[in-house]
Amino acid sequence: MTHSNPTSVTTQIRQRLEHAFAPHVLDVVDDSESHRGHAGFREGGESHFNVRIRAGIFEGQSRIARHRAVHDALGADLISQIHALSLDIGT
């Protein structure tokens, strides 16, 4: 039996970052469970994420420019669904 579930936040993060940056390293970790009982925690997770991304496009960009680029790629609609986003961005 198949269900037409909406795409998970984790999958959307991965897809949008792959499309925008063609990274050679991309780790998207849902760290929500470790925040149980804290602000922003939602049953079922997908509220707290750790993202590690490496892509040549970030060469020469400041830390702030890299973060802005990732936020822009994710989009306001997706960012609004995330309580906490930890970014490790490099080349």
UniProtKB/TrEMBL annotation:
Gene Ontology terms: biological process: iron-sulfur cluster assembly
A Pfam family this chain is assigned to: BolA
Coiled coil: none
PANTHER family from the UniProt entry: BOLA-LIKE PROTEIN 1, PTHR46230
Family named by the database record: Belongs to the BolA/IbaG family.
Name assigned to this protein: BolA family transcriptional regulator
Organism: Pontibaca salina
